[in-house]
Specification:
By secondary structure, this protein is an alpha+beta fold. Helices cover 48% and strands 17% of the residues. The chain contains 19 helices and 17 strands. The strands form three sheets. Strands 6, 7, 8, 9, 10, 11 and 12 form a seven-stranded mixed sheet that branches. Strands 2-1-5-4-3 form a five-stranded antiparallel sheet. It is elongated. It starts with a helix and ends in a 9-residue tail after the last helix.
């Protein structure tokens, strides 16, 4: 529409110039020729309709002759500008010499500038590579070291987003673990916060793939924290309840022997003395037995502030606390996380409480004082105390907890973790709360593709899924997902010719419902990225996969290059210098889509589309966005 108005304006200006020139010529010719002027005026009045018709015909013929030249010149100019923008992302691209001579000369000049830009960028890249060589070697050593550790290791920023992890951590936390994803979706947020307050301790937790033992080590400053993970080891020995029962039975046996010694005949005295000696020996053996530890140990001076912080976080209660003299240096045996949860559940309705810790022999006594009768302990608190082989009771306005304790070793505990080498810049993942305002280079994407038995989402089935994570403009080749699926039906020859998969190749592969949980976990906390994504989403919606924001490189191509005709994935890859490998395989197309998108980001920013919301809004206005499958 805008081009048509520009053409009409140019045509009107041309007609005004022609009419003005003709009028000026007649005026000069008729100077001093009054008779001729009157005669011409009379003829013009008599032939006015014919003259208007001839003028209209002249304008129409002129418009027909100039229209293709004018619009073609505009289109060629716009196409040259749009293709020249590709040089921002791919300096190796060269413009085709087409259109008018002037535009061809301009294209030659742009190609020369692109050659110089490419040479300069290569020189800069070489210098940067030299500067980073030492750092890269250190990172490789660190990565190799972490990769071969038997423990799972995860490095996260202060928001819990993953910066680095090793294969054992992936095995412990499952497909949901990935660079840029949040740990809070995989592990209990409260437990992680609690573990960070006790970096020397290890805690039992329930992970996505089963129970595990974790240790959270905060890094200096605001760099985040390190998470150490491992499977809990099988504990030997007697359970606490069984040990208490055995001690009780031994005490009963000794009492029975004492009673029999006073009432039995003298002939049985030797046997009773032997029985008494045996009972005492067994009693000593039982006393030497210890139940397996079901709790961690924490210093008494750390326990009270830790519980106070947990109560403020979990129950909105700010208690006072004090530790009596003599209790310093005690190691208190307690599952501190379970104890904090139990106290929070017990005190949820309270407004005031005071915590006091004191030593009582080899035990630690924690007293909670209230301005009214003490509340009834919550079952969670009862369970946490009993799990640590402790006891609790109410006494008027006080609630007493008696916990096992021992003297702390004389060697001081380390004050904090040693300095670590920086591996990933944590600021790279600082994403605003509103997803629409998030910068394109600050988001985690999942580029994905499907292969199917046909083009009808209502009738056809998925036979392959492929995906890869993209962090900003970096394709994470180490984080890919690929699965072949048994569709349970023959595959039409037309579909096999596209992706090369036959039913014989897929028989015995997992069903789609077996693959979907891991695929959903891979997509979680990411923005979807696809080429012609409306087709793929139609199949995913049918199997219950949600529809988070989708960035479609097909729409982005129409947004960036509206006057270029070819927007196929292969054409975009060739335009941006992306190798075309594995075409029409799910993972191959996903990788190609990821690389094309990474090169589109600078062009989008140049056009003013710097945020995810701006890109999605611009794509929604395109006619192609209304296409439904």
């Amino acid at each position: 529409m805008r081009e048509a108005l520009r053409f009409l304006g140019a045509l009107l200006l041309g007609l005004l110039l022609v009419g003005g020139t003709v009028g000026a010529g007649l005026f000069l010719l008729l100077q001093g020729e009054e008779g001729l002027a009157r005669e011409l005026l009379r003829v013009a009045q008599e032939k006015a309709f014919l003259l208007l018709f001839l003028g209209f015909l002249f304008a129409l013929v002129l418009a027909a002759l100039l229209h293709p030249l004018f619009l073609g010149y505009l289109a060629a100019t716009r196409a040259l500008g749009q293709e020249a923008e590709v040089l921002l992302a791919n300096p190796g691209h060269r413009l085709r010499l087409r259109g008018p001579f002037e535009l061809q000369a301009l294209a030659r000049l742009i190609n020369r500038l692109a050659e110089e830009k490419e040479a300069l960028e290569k020189e800069v890249e070489a210098r940067i590579a030299e500067a980073k060589a030492l750092l890269e070697r250190e990172r490789e050593v660190l990565g190799a070291l972490i990769a071969h550790l038997p423990q799972g290791v995860v490095l996260a920023n202060p928001k819990g987003q993953v910066l680095l992890y090793n294969p054992p951590a992936r095995g412990l936390l499952g497909e949901g673990l990935g660079a840029g994803k949040s740990l809070f979706g995989l592990l209990d947020r409260g437990l992680l916060a609690h573990a960070l307050a006790l970096p020397e301790e290890r805690f039992l937790a329930q992970g996505p793939t089963g129970p595990l033992r974790l240790q959270a080590v905060p890094l200096r400053g605001e760099a985040g924290f390190l998470l150490l993970l491992e499977r809990p080891k099988e504990e030997g020995g007697l359970q606490g309840e069984a040990l208490h029962a055995l001690k009780d039975k031994m005490a009963g046996l000794k009492a029975l022997v004492e009673v029999l010694e006073g009432e039995a005949p003298g002939a049985l005295a030797p046997l009773l003395r032997q029985a008494r000696a045996t009972a005492e020996a067994l009693s000593r053996l039982v006393e030497a037995l210890k139940a397996p530890a079901r709790a961690e140990e924490v210093r008494a001076e750390d326990l009270l502030p830790l519980l106070a912080e947990a109560l403020e976080r979990e129950a909105g209660l700010s208690p006072g606390f004090s530790l009596k003299e003599g209790a310093e240096g005690l190691l208190v045996q307690a599952d501190t996380y379970a104890l904090a949860r139990g106290l929070a559940a017990t005190l949820r309705e309270e407004e005031e409480v005071f915590l006091e810790g004191e030593r009582q022999g080899n035990l630690f006594r924690l007293t909670l004082s209230f301005p009214h009768p003490a509340p009834k302990p919550h079952p969670l608190l009862q369970e946490a105390v009993e799990a640590g082989l402790g006891s609790l009771w109410r006494e008027g306005s006080r609630l007493h907890l008696l916990l096992p304790a021992r003297e702390a070793p004389s060697t001081p505990l380390p004050k904090g973790p040693p300095p670590r080498a920086e591996v990933v810049d944590p600021a790279f993942l600082q994403v605003p709360e509103a997803l629409e305002e998030a910068p394109l280079e600050g988001l985690l994407y999942t580029a994905f593709d499907l292969e199917t038995t046909g083009l009808d989402p209502g009738k056809d089935a998925i036979v392959a899924l492929g995906a890869v994570h993209v962090l900003g403009r970096k394709v994470l080749y180490q984080e890919t997902f690929e699965a072949l699926v048994d569709p349970g039906r023959p595959i039409p020859q037309a579909a096999t010719e596209v992706h090369g998969l036959t039913w014989e190749m897929l028989k015995g592969k997992p069903k789609l419902e077996e693959v979907l949980p891991a695929f959903k976990a891979f997509l979680e906390d990411t923005v979807l990225l696809a080429h012609n994504g409306a087709f793929d989403l139609a199949f995913l919606r049918k199997v219950g996969v949600g529809e988070p924001p989708l960035v479609d490189t097909l729409l982005l191509a129409h947004l960036l290059f509206p006057d270029l005709k070819d927007h196929r994935l292969e054409a975009l890859a060739e335009r941006f210098g992306v190798p075309i490998l594995g075409r029409h395989t799910a993972l191959g197309d996903a990788l190609m889509t990821a690389e094309v998108f990474a090169r589109m980001v600078p062009l989008l920013k140049e056009r003013g589309y710097a945020t995810l919301g701006a890109v999605l809004a611009a794509c929604q206005r395109l006619p192609l966005a209304r296409l439904k499958y």
